[in-house]
Prior knowledge:
The complex is a heterodimer of chains A (about 800) and B (about 55). Chain A is an alpha+beta fold and about 800 residues long. In chain A, about 50% of the residues lie in helices and about 20% in strands. Among the domains of chain A are: about 70-165, Alpha-Beta Plaits (2-Layer Sandwich); about 305-355 and about 365-400, Calcium-transporting ATPase, cytoplasmic transduction domain A, CATH 2.70.150; about 475-515 and about 630-745, Rossmann fold; about 515-625, 3-Layer(aba) Sandwich (Calcium-transporting ATPase, cytoplasmic domain N). Chain B has one domain (about 5-45). With about 55 residues, chain B is mostly helical.
Amino acid sequence: MAAAEQCFHCALPIPANCDIRVEIGGTQQPVCCPGCKAVAELIRDSGLERYYDSRETPDPGAVRPPEDAGEWQVFDRDDMLAAFSTRQGDRAEASIYVGGMYCAACSWLIDSTLSTMTGIASADISPVTHRLRVTWNPAATGLGGILAALANLGYRPQPLAPDSTERPERGEQRAALKRLLVASLGMMQVMMFAVALYSGEFQGIDAKMERFLRLVSFIVTTPVVFYSARPFFAGAIRGIRARKPGMDLPVSIAIGSAYVASVYATYTNGPAVWYDSVTMFVFFLTVARYLEMRARHRSIDRSTALSSLLPNTATRIDGDARQLVAVSQLVAGDRVRVRAGESFPADGAIIDGVSSVDESLLTGESAPRQKSIGDTVVAGSINLDGVVDMHVEKTGVDTTLGMIGRLSERARYARPTFVNLADRIASYIVVAILVIAAVVATTWYVIDADRAFVITLSVLVVTCPCALALATPAAFAAAGSRLADLHLLVTNGNAIEMLSKATHVVFDKTGTLTRGAPEVVRTTVQDEHFIEADCLQIAAALEVASTHPIARAFVKHETALRASDLVVTVGAGVEGVIDGRRWKLGSADFVTEMPAPMPTGESDVATTQVFLGSERGVVGAFEIDDALRDDAHNTLKLIEKMGISTSLVSGDSEAPVNRIATTLGIGDARSGCSPDDKLATIRTLQKAGEVVVMVGDGINDAPVLAGADASIAPSHAASLAQSSADILMLGNLLQPIVTALRAARQTMRVVRQNLGWAIVYNIVAVPLAATGFVPPWLAAIGMSASSLIVVLNALRLSRFE
Amino acid sequence: MNILYLLIPLALLLLGGAVWAFFWAVGSGQFDDMDTPAVRVIMDDDKRPPDDGVE
């Protein structure tokens, strides 16, 4: 094998027989295919070479251009424009999902390219959601032109229907920002007035001025309580209605009672007001919720996730006429032609043609399936080698794909209920503080009415819940940013707490523990004139033209040979002429051209066998298998060492699953599981008291990912799986799972330290303050110091290795 | 100290103005993408003017 040289553009290893170079910045850089060359040249010629300097290293293959750039002109038609954009005068606005982009440099590249096109008014692209919102003049440039420009850069654009779920998400984000701002500005103002009131307590304050400041505090606090804190009240009421009061209830009681008590004190000129505590508490809670929401929005939303597995367009056959239509326009009863390499746009049955179909993402089965007339096909699976016509039966959300989507939605809803540690503790403590303050106030009022006010004030200040409210969010934020450095994107903050408690990790097989792509694992030579390397070379030369996944196993190997007259026989193999000799590569029947006695039933053969032969008979045989990832062994060993048990749950057949399980020493392996079975497996474990972490990448894993206590998906996973997972891991290794588990434990240790500190501090400080030993100024210092300690402790996580 | 009776209400008015301006900014979509602008400002400095480029 040649040295592992990487493609300059997409970072995939360069095939040995490939010598394509492109000049960038004065140096000749190697690329892996003509597609990457074209993209690199386009970027260079547009003067955008700086893209290569500023981008992060891509996941290998992420930006490799698709072999078939697609027919984008169809999107220039008026009906398409109407379906995918909203018009306002001569302006059209469309949302496009840009597959394959991975860092901010990509969004710069896209932005710069689009801005040179005529008629583009604005283009906003988010590297987080991978969505491009473009406003343009359709008379100058067609939607097809925009999509083609993106495709030429090597991305996989996909226009989204205008009514897709972006809007509510955007609305939620905007509302949360406004709430946060009102809370923070309100908190700052009220704090300022509070300082005046505290110092007035020392130096004496005009009674009129005191009333005035309280009144102003009341005016500022009111919108904070009724606007910023509304989600907490709404949540509490929902909880009461559903007879399942959550943590919003104590939070609401704390906010509500402190506010009402303060208003009453303001009105009656009572001893103390708590406006500062109210706004501070609301502010910290709102910050925590906002951060959590941002992380949640980072994951891909479901409607995009589902539709990105389908092609954009389909070829509809109407009598003799062929018409390219958007997939959303297909209805049951249509006849659709699907060429090799395309994915099926809908559920249906094959009515013409034969092909093998890759359903691995949907079923987890690693081997492609042979399909002919009458067989059913499901949307999202990939047509590998033949041209087939299908009869559309179900489209959109009614497809198997849509059902899996709904199943994962339900699974997430039915997740074991989980209240995070901080909410649980903090809310009760806040209520306790208010009760204590009330008791202290009345007690001192009886003992010594003059000192009652100052002492109550000290108690309230000293126990300010900031440290408590900060304990968890600060730790999660620090851990989240550290994990992002370590190639783990956390999309659900609660996952960290669940991960730290994990007792069981369930793995998917295909694409998770294994690479998900076939490789030649053993070569046997049956003709003494040849050696292994010859066989591989001949096979590689023969498979050059094939799109079949098995072909990829061979194409990786170096070959100097060139084959001519290549003929692909669908579902059997390929033949061609090399150096005047006719070779065949494929199934035993195909190569020997007679029904060769296959070893036994297929279930006994763990690996796929491919034979190589010429006119003179069989020369060699290859065993093709989906190989394990390099660090699978190590990762599993490390997980076991942490005292966490493991299982393997796969949709693949028994033999390959058992073999992998035995190799890796996983005792509990289940094969042939449907998405429902997988979910049931996890539910059983959860009922037995296990905290289950799921690691998977397929569409069929999505419900389990959503239903498990915490879930991790690799970044190459199907987008539906990604949208169901709590954590995405970038790169091609399994090792980050261990990192995530360790980081989660470390994070929760810090959270517990923080909460512990806050509690100890309160236990010490409250009696001192209540007995009148702490003046308000000392209380204020104590409160600030305790918050600071909590934050500094959390920052230790940013050095986690 | 009587000046406070004027200054504090004035401050509140300013506060109201700030909140209104922020709400307007949020509503016009300026906070929808918090990630790109931070990077774009570093990268865009030598972009050619649109007329100058190759069509």
